[in-house]
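Could you show me some protein's one-letter sequence and the numbers that encode its backbone in two labelled lines?

___
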Amino acid sequence: MSKLSYNLLRIRDSYRPNRLSVKKFIIKDDKKHPFAIICPGGGYYMNAAFVEGDDYAKELNKLGINCFIIYYRVREKAYFPNPVDDVAKALKCILEKKEKYNLVDNYAIFGSSAGGHLAGMFARDDIGYKKYNLPKPNAAVLVYPVVTLYPPTHEGTKRYILGKNNNEEMIELLSLEKNITKDYPKTYFMCGKKDSAVNPIGSLKLKQAFDEKGIEHIFRYYDNLPHGAGIAKGTEAENWIKEAVGFWLKDSD
């Protein structure tokens, strides 16, 4: 993708209507498939599906995964719990049409950057799927995610998800590493050691929490992966989607 095309897509996504919508990537072979819920990043300022949505879905389709990109509410409408509500509402609608979309009862939630924060929240039983009486994700896949709202966090993500509720109680509630329980789904996550946008210390804290709670996980900590790499073609992480799907589905029938 050229720099001009990238910037045009970025502008387009910045000015999308600020309401929940879902973009579908359905494999048209009349067979039933597992499915992925994809939460693009964008600092809760926009949905960066031009690099962390469509490209993922196309690669996942090749691996036999039906996909649904969630355009959740952002900016002044991103205050918690609105984005989590949006994921829940979208998943409920998807499950109600699972026969139409040829879905099996096996899904993973993918999220990148701030979308990784959102996916991580939805995978929790206290403020995520269980609160909405929805099935637990079979796996979570978090790509250079925002994990913690404690310093050093991504300030844009923190500002938009907290809004006026910028207090210690909410910071702790929405910091993933502080709220991992033994019931958290198995998780594949990765980041770069030199990430200049989202400090990798959050992912390191998340790994520590998984280790302490005994959560099955794979963590990839790359030397040179830049933030916003997306499918990471041509980088040291270019096989991450295939590896993540293998990890997710390895115990499936």
